[in-house]
Design a protein that fits this description.
homodimer; Aspartate Aminotransferase, domain 2; three-stranded antiparallel β-sheet; 15 helices; about 45% helix
Chain lengths: ~400, ~400
């Protein structure tokens, strides 16, 4: 054996999402693109806002000496300032450029944060169902993943989180709006979490960092508001990405925002900057930094996603599926009509429908539908969804058949 | 304490290059930009080629559905194919898209490669003087750094490398053209290395991976050719970056190229793709992938750097400095006129000259000049360089003074 043993082990249990993605490619080759209903990947299908394209063309054309040179490891000061101003406006906190580190998306941000924080054996709590990459990110830095189930409505179970906190707990990751459930944590949930962490922090004389993974904070429906964790709790860190807000997940641009009064703020900021450098990110892509500087208040049209949610929820409810209606993001987490979610996902495959089994998110008995797809994909898939659930219902067996079987 | 202990320790011994960079900013504020001669950072000052700008504007303007969406973790197939074709042409090897993973520059590439390969305690050999980030990259994955000195002309010391190889040696990193010395390893050096690794690989029944960090492979002078390690040795992996070839280090675009007959090729490729994902890179920036697809044979005008080298080498030789003339990259590694390189670097600071002490590269007694600066910076700094070396020469003491001192 030559490659890393840990990576070799990870390979064999590799991401179910990607596996579905590959099965999807094979199915599409066989049946044609429009005959396959691919809900497996969170790759936004709403195009970037026109303002993004205008800004890109403007910057592409500008004559700036060494426009594509290294930026400071933390990012351009003007970009960080624009981000700080935006957060200051929405939270009332006094954020400055010194509280912001530009990152390669939220995935890059989370890796940098965890590397900066974790010593081997430190525990990080994540809430089930969870985004599939969290365990990898935590184990990258020899952290220990502690799984805590959410309540039946996918809101955080404060008492259970409290029981999971030990002397070794370094951080808790939350993700609201949530992937895979679409849940937006309420103001009360956030306040209760903050109260719990303050209490536990005092007891242990060691802070608990609240890491909020917020790539979907702008993708919310029906006027729902995402409560600010920065306002609620001072030992909090935001991992943000423009991937979903501006529909550019391939460009890898996001940021880390640190509460101005976080524990040992200077050390933490220096650590985040160092880790950006030594993990090989070096700096967030320069061109994208320039562009997002001027797009702080721009977003894709969220109504487009809301319509998709409504189409999907309407169709699935009519077919008899059970789920909690998403308040944000573009995922629906559906109860599998049979306990074995993998088996049901295979049943859906026969309908050329690609979804991801809940066990991939630590939550068997469910499956995830990523509805960032064409409306027609949703509409045309509904018959297949209906057939699949009907198949799982106890068959009405005729009197004759019953008599026959008892014979 | 709350942040990672390892990171805290790294912070206190943080990069000398960045420290010089910051001292530079302070000096520039005090004396004015044009009065400070900043040779501390390898941030290319030659602008990107016109072809890059044309391609950027073209791609920015194109109407492509979801142009900025996620790419496959390994990168766009067409980009990988373009890279594979280029390498096939120059090496005669049959490279395909399946041997290429697009990366966030060479820094991202090296992190992905080392994570894919290393188990805790695996040893990685690097050659002194070394690029300052290598020890960080290796220790990120709990690897053990083994330092082997180069020969006085900075070429690899094959015998010394042979002695440093143990049962735990997983890989050797080389960097030619070299940062900080400008050395280009000869065809003979590469062949000797390959022979050594094959022999040791057979003896240990376990391959030694040769990782070639090649961001400067296009930046060579006087018609020097960089020998291909892929042609010489099958267990070799290239970490490449377009940062220097196209002058866009801030955009974070490069690739990993794996020898088609490398040991357990399929596992290694899968591992590289997985590590790209789970380290949070996810994919190399999409827009830059599209652009470099069409710029495989484009490079900055290397003559511009060659002229800078000649200006600098001429001036420093006249002043009495000792160094090996760089054959590539844009660094000059100069013998300090006094044994204490840090002290001499401080003497140069008094002349408003910023360079980096050799100890930062594991090689005390030298200092590094990054000559990717304006010609005028080089020319105007030469007086200061001359004064500094004169100061270090043994003073001619007059007869009278000698008599006086003996009195």
């Amino acid at each position: 054996m030559s490659i890393s043993k840990k990576i070799k082990a990870s390979l064999s249990g590799s991401s179910m999402i990607r596996k579905m993605f590959e099965e999807g490619i094979a199915l599409k080759k066989k049946h044609g693109e429009d005959k396959v209903y691919d809900f497996s990947l969170g790759n936004p299908n709403v195009d970037h806002p026109e303002a993004f394209k205008r800004e890109l063309i403007k910057v592409a054309d500008q004559e700036i000496k060494l426009k594509h040179g290294y930026t400071p490891n933390a990012g351009y000061p003007e970009t960080r300032l624009a981000v700080a101003r935006k957060i200051s406006r929405t939270t009332g906190l006094k954020m400055t450029a010194d509280h912001i580190v530009m990152s390669c998306g939220a995935g890059g941000a989370l890796n940098v944060i965890l590397k900066a924080l974790l010593d081997p054996g430190d525990e990080v709590i994540i809430l089930t169902p969870f985004f599939v990459e969290y365990p990898f990110y935590i184990e990258n830095y020899d952290g220990v993943v502690k799984y805590v189930s959410t309540r039946p409505d996918f809101s955080p179970d404060i008492a259970a989180i409290g029981r999971a906190i030990t002397r070794k707990t370094k951080a808790v990751i939350i993700n609201s709006p949530n992937n895979p459930t679409g849940k937006v944590y309420s103001q009360k949930s956030i306040k209760d979490l903050a109260r719990l962490f303050r209490k536990k922090g005092r007891e242990r004389k060691r802070p608990i960092y609240l890491i909020a993974d917020e790539p979907y904070s702008e993708i919310v429906f029906d006027g729902v508001k995402v409560p600010s964790i920065l306002k609620a709790y001072s030992n909090s860190i935001i991992a943000y990405s423009y991937s979903k807000t501006l529909s550019l997940p391939g460009e890898r641009i996001g940021y880390i925002a640190v509460h101005p009064r976080i524990h040992e703020a200077d050390d933490l900021m220096a650590a985040l900057i160092l880790c950006t450098r030594i993990l090989g990110f070096v700096n967030a892509p320069a061109l994208m930094q320039r562009i997002v500087t001027h797009l702080q208040n721009v977003s894709v049209d969220v109504k487009i996603y809301q319509k998709k949610r409504d189409l999907l929820c309407g169709g699935l409810a009519a077919a008899g599926y059970e789920f909690a209606r998403p308040e944000g993001a573009f995922y629906l987490f559906v109860k599998s009509p049979i306990p074995d979610d993998a088996a049901f996902v295979h049943r859906l495959l026969q309908e050329n429908i690609l979804v991801v089994p809940g066990r991939g998110f630590g939550c068997p008995g469910y499956f995830r539908i990523a509805f960032c797809v064409e409306d027609s994909t949703i509409v045309n898939s509904l018959e297949g969804f209906a057939r699949a659930i009907q198949d799982c219902r106890p068959k009405k067996v005729s009197r004759r058949a019953r008599l026959g079987s008892s014979a």
